[in-house]
Design goal:
This protein is of the alpha+beta class and 72 residues long. The protein contains two helices and three strands.
Length: 72
Amino acid sequence: MSLVKVKEVIGSSAEGFDDAFQEAVNQICAHKKNVSGAKIVSQTADIKDGQITEYKVNVKIAYRWEKELHDK
């Protein structure tokens, strides 16, 4: 039996939405094993004086949850 857990995170970047998405994936992959997929839920941007200052993406990231498998 395998369990898949989904975690929602927000990635941000001053460069663009693609970089913000990659940052979210990088952070989760650095802390979780068996990452299997990611879905962008929404995109937003901070604006100051008519210029975009930060791009943000809400991302749902799926990974296999090993803890339950080893606790039996």
